[in-house]
Write a structure and sequence with these properties.
Blueprint (H helix, E strand, L loop, with lengths): L17 H12 L6 E5 L6 H13 L17 H7 L6 E4 L3 E2 L4 E2 L5 H11 L9 E5 L7 H12 L5 E7 L7 H5 L2 E4 L5 H10 L4 H11 L3 H9 L2 H17 L4 H8 L3 H24 L12 H20 L4 H16 L5
Parallel strand pairs: 1-6, 1-7, 2-5, 5-6
Antiparallel strand pairs: 3-4
């Protein structure tokens, strides 16, 4: 597949949300769509994709493809304007890009939210809806969150606020109380696998990535566009090598070489998630893939040891080759006790 991912504002489709979209489409058609929404879910769950689909539907409901979804033809004027960041009735509040530092600011500031509230109070270009997306609401500092409350308390007619959040429980209670919440459920692994193959990912890589994505299609797509499949494969080889006490040099080269920067986070997360999944399976006496005969207690100790080691190692910026050797040492010690 193409390594250049489409931004959610450019992506036409979304998977695994048919029932949800049917309900939202009905609310829009009946004029029952409220002014404030929290779209909640982990990173890569599809929050931004849903937000842009909702924005298109609210700004141009007549252009929607059918009465049961938020689908809109890519050829429509509204779709093209939003994709090119040129729609006059859509405002996106996010972290500002700092040209001097070459990176985004660490938070959404009160100045950005003041621009948002000013935008909402203007007359819409078509005399209809205005939509503002906050991506993500988790990034707002306290002053910004308090400024947003004004727009939520006294929303202008025709204005809709879509707040994206990976941790909605951390938002101000007053913000949460003035919004309806949509929790994006995990998408079935089989659906993600089909989605990836449709994007040009090989069947083998699609299966690996879909299993690791934990119901997050956006995260799966990011893995497929980068080094995800190879990183997952290296993590699986690492677990096998640790238990059979095989040499780790090939794995170390794969995670520390030229592509190591992209592979390391996925490799680390895969190892940790494999241990936690296996511990849960063993606790209910189910077969744990890759850990035949290992007790739940030993797996839990392994998960804890590796998680803590990775946290300390990254905080101290330790050499990754040494990190992997240390992970193997700690994991072997934790797994030495077999179930009877």
């Amino acid at each position: 597949m193409d390594d250049e991912l489409l931004h959610p504002r450019e992506r036409a489709g979304q998977i695994g949300r048919d029932d949800l979209e049917r309900e939202l489409r009905k609310s829009i058609s009946e004029g029952a769509f409220t002014h404030g929404w929290i779209l909640a879910g982990p990173d890569g769950a599809g929050k931004a994709t849903l937000a842009y689909r909702l924005a298109r539907a609210l700004l141009d409901p007549k252009a929607l493809s059918d009465a049961n979804s938020l689908e809109m033809p890519e050829t429509s004027r509204t779709f093209r304007l939003i994709a090119s960041e040129a729609h006059p009735d859509l405002f996106v509040a996010d972290r500002i890009w700092d040209e001097k530092k070459g990176k985004h600011q660490t938070e959404i500031t009160v100045e950005t939210i003041r621009k948002l509230t000013s935008f909402l109070n203007r007359t819409a270009s078509g005399g209809g809806a205005r939509v503002a997306i906050v991506d993500t609401a988790d990034d707002m500092n306290r002053n910004a969150a308090n400024a947003l409350l004004k727009a939520l308390e006294e929303p202008p007619k025709g204005a809709t606020l879509l707040l994206l959040s990976s941790a909605p429980g951390r938002l101000l209670p007053t913000v949460r109380s003035r919004c309806r919440r949509i929790d994006l459920a995990p998408v079935a692994t089989e659906d993600i696998e089909r989605f990836l193959t449709g994007e040009g990912v090989s069947a083998d890589d699609a299966q690996k990535i879909a299993g690791h994505a934990r119901g997050r299609p956006g995260y799966a797509l990011m893995l497929a566009a980068g080094e995800g499949a190879e990183a997952i494969s290296l993590a699986q080889q690492f677990i096998s090598a640790v238990q059979s006490r095989r040499d780790l040099s090939r794995i170390i080269t794969g995670v520390t070489g030229k592509a190591g920067e992209a592979r390391w986070p996925v490799f680390r997360d895969t190892v940790i998630s494999m241990l936690s999944d296996a511990a849960r399976a063993a606790a209910v006496q189910e077969q744990s893939a890759g850990f035949d005969g290992v007790s739940a207690g030993a797996l839990l100790d392994g998960w804890q040891a590796v998680s803590q080691l990775c946290g300390r190692g990254e905080a101290l910026n330790l050499d990754r080759a040494q990190m992997i050797e240390a992970m193997a040492f700690d994991l072997r010690n934790a797994l030495r006790e077999k179930a009877a």
